[in-house]
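Batch job 17 of 40 flagged for manual review because the log was empty.
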Amino acid sequence: MADLSTCYLGLTLKNPLVVAASGLTATVEGVKKAAAAGAGAVVLKSLFEEQLDAELASAETALAEGAHPEAWDFLRGAGNEEGAREYLALVAQAKEAGIPVIASLNCRGAGRWSEFAARIEAAGADALELNMGFLPTSTEELGEAVEERLLAAFREARAATKLPLAVKLGPSYSSVPAIAAELARLGAAGLVLFNRFYRIDVDLAKLALRPGPTQSSGDEYHESLRWIAVLADRVPCDLAASTGIHDAEAALKLVAAGASAIQLCSVIYRRGFGVIGEISRAMNDWLDEKRMQNLAALKGRLAQWRSVDPAAYLRLQYVKALTGIA
């Protein structure tokens, strides 16, 4: 059988299939199920700054009006500490599952990244994924300022921990290659492409907003495929594919483009943890059929820099499709 092992964030994984940050990895039981199913690693459910703030707000409403200011200060400190302590316990206990454990942070701004990153390292995580979803809503904030906020947050986390850091990005930056290269220069060990942001919909009967689809479909991996192929071996860090990977075929395509790791989520929600083993075996069968002894023989074979037709990854094929030019 072909060797599916890979190196991601300086960690040796028995295969590239990583369970993404989600409710699937919110408990020790979930992590153990992922390990038993054959996952190469897990990313724990993110510690959200908003989650800690919401829990704190709920407790504050229960505090009687007119309470002493010191009571408010104590409550804020205790609320944040309790939420963080529960997450740190999850990190420590998840290590017992016997596979690499990547923690995940999702903070809004400065001041919290360094605090939590240092404590996550002390809890025993093998690496840390920074989920950086800064959604600009101001008509006065230019793209450069949004990107600088992201880079400043990364610098803060990088200075606080020696853990390998991965950054989970959205696809909407003005120059994905430039932001990727700068993050690598600042010390990012990996990039996760791409974050699938919360989607909204409209309930016309109630004239109200409602959640959009929470799970990906099997045709949403193409944007990740494009940019992994473009960035592979051009930025000095590992690349992980995320969103829309539902079978071995998509996983193999992304490895061929240059991915070191493949994050799975929606397909596990739909089909259960057993799908990890199914995808792994199908990948192995394909490599055997092609007489490839290991995953490394496939990795990056279709990266743009190796192509005899680099334009096929970019605008030319789009023009051909719309105009019919040869």
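Reviewer: the log was empty due to a logging misconfiguration, but the result itself is present. Residues 69-94 form the longest helix (26 residues). Unflagging and moving on to job 18.
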